[in-house]
Amino acid sequence: MSVLRRSIGLVEQECTSCLICVRECPCQCIDIERHTEQVSEGRRPRTVHVLDAFAIDFALCMFCGICVDACPTDALLWSETTGLAAQQRDQLVSGRADLALRAGD
Q1: What gap in Å lies between CA 48 and CA 15, rounded to an integer?
Q2: Region 34-63: what's the mean pLDDT?
Q3: CA–CA separation, 105 vs 80, rounded Å?
Q4: What is the DSSP letter of 43?
């Protein structure tokens, strides 16, 4: 299956908020806000990161795909979403709702 490189999408339920995409992005266009929570599964509790906000500034993004390749959980994928044109630069920042993809997409 060939996927057109039109935009980058987020499968939110797969994102572990590891920040690898943020560190690897040469344009520094990805912004993640997260917090930690204690989860008790099994014998002892563990700390997990919970995604609060995820945004990509497409005015800065050069669509190189490094973030898609670097994501260890495949939470970032190439999307066929179009319509990234905008009148104002700040309208090119896409948040969680704009980037949302379902796990099967």
Answers
A1: 12
A2: 91
A3: 10
A4: S
DSSP single-letter state for residue 10: E
Question: What pLDDT shows up at residue 2?
Answer: 52
Residue 7's alpha-carbon distances to 38, 39, 40, 58, 102, in angstroms, are: 34, 34, 37, 9, 15
Where do runs of H (alpha helix) occur along the chain? 20-24, 66-70, 96-99
Is 3.50.50.60 the CATH classification of the domain at 7-81? no
Tokens of 89: 């630069």
Please list, in sequence order, all residues whose beta carbon lies within 8 angstroms of the beta carbon of residue 41, skipping any fewer than 6 positions away. Answer: none
How confident is residue 96, by pLDDT bands cut at 50, 70 and 90?
A: confident
Residue 83 confidence class, pLDDT cut points 50, 70, 90: low
Q: Tokens standing for 29?
A: 């266009």
Q: Which residues pair with 31 in a beta bridge?
A: 55
The residue among 14, 29, 17, 23 whose CA lies nearest residue 77 is 14
